[in-house]
Design a protein that fits this description.
Blueprint: H1 7-16, E1 24-28, E2 36-37, E3 41-42, E4 52-53, E5 57-60, E6 70-71, E7 73-77, E8 91-94, E9 106-109, E10 113-116, E11 119-122, E12 132-133, E13 144-146, H2 154-162, E14 167-171, E15 175-181, E16 185-186, E17 197-198, H3 201-211, E18 215-222, H4 226-239, E19 242-246, H5 257-264, E20 265-270, E21 274-275, E22 280-285, E23 288-293, H6 297-316, E24 326-330, E25 334-335, E26 340-350, E27 353-358, H7 367-372, E28 375-379, E29 384-385, E30 390-395
Parallel strand pairs: 7-8, 15-18, 15-19, 16-17, 19-23, 21-26, 24-27
Antiparallel strand pairs: 1-14, 2-14, 3-13, 4-12, 5-8, 5-9, 6-11, 10-11, 20-22, 22-23, 24-30, 25-29, 26-27, 26-28, 28-30
Helix pairs in contact: 1-6, 3-6, 4-5
The structure holds adenosine monophosphate (AMP) and magnesium ion (MG).
Length: 399
């Protein structure tokens, strides 16, 4: 039997086959969440656009600041309005976000003042420039605010909006076809007979794809026949940028994906040292890349997360394609086997450290373990893990 190949080596090789999409389109911010930015964007404005007040209080010249003096209030400047130049020796009432008037350089917060008849006395001396948010302190005019390959997350969309951009060029989201193979599968909501199970992979895969910003072409359940598999693959290759199948890539004679793909293109089964997860297949159908993911739900989920996801993100043009990894401490004993294992773990904070607790049943059909988990912990081949040992985890946030 040929040696199993390490996961990282397989992923690196697969990344070498990626053809990054060149399709782009102009999208409004309303419609761009999770899209991949096509090219760098520079700000045409300063943020904030002018020096403005960080507090409700009084704008003044720092050089005039002294205690035991009653100041006249010569102006009132709410946010959104430009005040007059400050009359020397006076204060201007000012509100958070309002522009600092000419002649003022410091804002005394309201809490550090006292009303005396019609005037104001300072109860504490300000620092020079206190409570003034400087023009351009967040973003200087001309600065690059997002780069080609960045993901337009909620926070990034907020940043783009803050420089007044309403539309931007994004990489058109890839359309990913998903096919669930298996005559035992029944869609949720339908009556189930002995020997059948509900199709869960379809929803897990479609959900992960949508969460990551891809378009999904769901081809539903594909019968375990060569004809049905060929027809579904041809349709997928015509309409989608990438095909994901679940199940049907093992060696049994009921597994038609491999043979059908070989008729239309090519498919290689990768002997990867991953648990859960083998077998995993990669190839193309008439030039459209295809991943044949294993059918067991946890295997589908893990191989998608570790392999297919990385490939898809690279194909979409994202600059960050590798999953996040953190180091935590193990709360359990574990002996690594002959394949790298992705254990479903839950994270807890205790005594200033983060500990990973392991789900008791790590079987490849135990989807409750994935739902329970916060992260996948990596147990390397032959690794002896003891409580307190450092452990690498891949968080599963949002997926
Ligand atoms: P296979 O790779 O087709 O041999 O499938 C491996 C295991 O995963 C079998 O127990 C299948 O019943 C199960 N399985 C395959 N596809 C799905 C699916 N879409 N949803 C839930 N379980 C599945
Ligand atoms: Mg099957």
């Amino acid at each position: 039997m040929p040696a199993l190949r390490p996961v990282d080596e397989v992923v690196d090789e697969l990344l070498g086959y990626v053809e990054v999409t060149r399709k782009t389109e102009l999208r409004s911010l309303d419609d761009a969440l999770n899209c991949c930015v096509a090219s760098d964007i520079q700000s045409e404005v300063h943020v904030p656009p002018q020096d403005n007040s960080a507090m409700d209080g009084y704008a003044m010249a720092f050089s005039d600041a002294e205690l035991n003096r009653i100041y006249e209030i010569s102006d009132r400047i709410p946010a959104g309005y430009i005040g007059n130049a400050l009359v020397p020796g006076t204060l201007a009432r000012i509100f958070t976000g309002a522009s600092i008037p000419a002649g003022a350089d410091t804002v005394v917060m309201q809490e550090n003042t006292k009303q005396i008849d019609d005037g104001i006395e300072l109860t504490q001396l300000p620092r020079d420039g206190e409570n003034v948010r400087r023009q351009g302190q967040d973003i200087e005019q001309g600065a690059t605010i997002v780069k080609g390959g960045d993901r337009l997350t909620a926070k990034t969309l907020g940043l783009v909006a803050s420089v007044g951009v309403s539309k931007l060029e994004v990489k058109t989201p890839l359309k990913v076809a998903i096919m669930s193979t298996g005559d035992e599968l029944v869609e949720p909501g339908e009556a189930i007979s002995p020997g059948q199970i509900y199709n869960s992979n379809r929803f897990a895969l479609a959900g992960m794809l949508k969460t990551l910003g891809f378009d999904v072409l769901d081809l539903g359940i594909v019968e375990d026949t060569r004809e049905a598999t060929l027809a579904a693959l041809e349709r997928a290759a015509e309409q989608a940028d990438l095909i994901l199948t679940s199940g049907g890539v093992s060696v049994g004679e009921e597994d038609h994906v491999k043979g059908a793909v070989e008729t239309l293109g090519r498919l290689d089964v990768w002997k990867m040292a991953i648990k859960p997860g083998k077998p995993l297949a990669y190839g193309n159908v008439k030039g459209t890349p295809i991943f044949g993911l294993p059918g067991n739900p946890v295997s589908t989920y893990v191989t998608f997360h570790v392999v297919a996801r990385t490939y898809l993100l690279a194909m979409q043009g994202f600059s960050k394609v590798q999953p996040d990894v953190y180091t935590v401490r193990s709360a359990f004993d574990f002996s690594g086997g002959g394949r790298r294992e992705y254990l479903r773990v839950k994270l807890h904070n205790r005594d200033g450290a983060t500990y990973a607790e392991r789900f008791s049943n790590q079987g490849s059909g135990i989807m409750t373990s994935v739902v329970w988990a916060d992260a996948l912990a990596v147990a390397e081949v032959g690794q002896q893990i003891h409580p307190g040992d450092a452990l690498t985890v891949l968080p599963l946030t949002g997926l």
